[in-house]
Amino acid sequence: MFHNWSIARRLFVANLLFVLVLTAVFGAFSVVEARDRAYDEAGGRMQAIAASLANNPLVLQAASTPDPTAILQPYAREVMDDADADFITIMAPDRTRWTHPRAEELGKPYIGTIEPALGGETFTEVTAGTLGPSVRTIAPVKDTDGNVKALVAAGVTVRTVDTDVAERLGVIGGIALVVLVFGSFASWLLGRYLRSVTRGWGPEQLAQLFAYYESVLHSVREGVILIDTHGKAVMYNDQAAELLGLEPSDADRSPEKAPKLADLPFDGSLRALFESGRPAHDEIHLTGSRILVVNQAPAVGPVPERSRQKPAVYGTVATIRDRTEIESLGTELQTMKTLSDALRAQTHEHANRLHMIVSLLELGRTPQALDFATKDLELSQQLTDDMVASVDEPVMSALVMGKAAEAHERGVELEVRTSGSSGVRGLEIQDLVTILGNLLDNAIDAAAGGDFPRKVELDVEAGPAAVEFTVRDSGSGINPDSIDDVLQYGFSTKSPEENPRGAHGRGVGLALVRQAVERLNGTMTISNPGGAQFHVLLPAPVPEEEKA
Question: Would you call 247 helix, strand, or coil by DSSP?
Answer without folding.
Answer: coil
